[in-house]
Amino acid sequence: ILTSKAAVVTGSTGGIGLAVARGLAKEGADVVLNGFGKPEEIEKARAGIAAEFGVRAIYSGADMSKPAEIAEMMAMAEKELGRIDVLVNNAGIQFVAPVEDFPVEKWDAILAINLSSAFHTIRAAVPGMKARGYGRIVNIASAHSIVASPYKSAYVAAKHGLLGMTKSVALEVAGQGITANCISPGYVWTPLVESQIPDTMKARGLTKEQVIEDVLLKAQPTKEFVTVEQVAAIVTFLCSDAAKQMTGANLSVDGGWTAQ
Ligand code: NAD
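Predict the joint structure of the above. Result:
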């Protein structure tokens, strides 16, 4: 469904973003990978996508906390791939601390990466999308775009803000072939989550199953993690014709978390 289209996925060197980039490439889109990591691993992911799906895959190391680098990445994508049809704002970081102790630089970084970077990519991508009459903006928010948890003031503020901006953009571009939506995952199974389990087992004297059900998935009624492929499949669906009238929406994929 995305042959001869091009996609930019921020924060796509691992986790959800890489699965999203692979999902879009599978549908025929050329992709821009972005994010940090070991150069050889990034190159392996990039070359793997190009070889496996027969698309162009390029990489930008732009730091999503730096507006000038974001502008460069977007210009590079337009220049190299000729267009940006699909924009997935996925880059995100987390920091947990009581509000009175929350480091100011962590607040600024979370707001910059999890919220403002999407403003900067969107403002760069929209003119081309309008000119071509097609665009899909997908912002990876979180259950924390709807509900809060303690000690996550910056993350919750950024994700609520991302949802608000998405709705506003959706209204601005309505009727021009462009949609803007959020996907809001609950807990997603990523290497980051997996690597926390042994330490928590030791610290609390719990089994792996207890850590998963009673600690990690306490808020998630299905007691199962979301997979990165499930998030990627929703992004691909949002790019299809079937999703043409879905805009300004927040798609929860959270095992029932926010239904409570
Ligand atoms: P991850 O840590 O596995 O991947 C994050 C990606 O962003 C990596 O590619 C990293 O290199 C990149 N990144 C980090 N800082 C960056 C910066 N300054 N500039 C450019 N790239 C940067 O995280 P993930 O779990 O895949 O999360 C992806 C998104 O999904 C985030 O926005 C996160 O808030 C959201 N999310 C994750 C979960 C979860 O349980 N994993 C749940 C809900 C929402």
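Residues 6-186+226-259 form a domain with the Rossmann fold fold (CATH 3.40.50.720).
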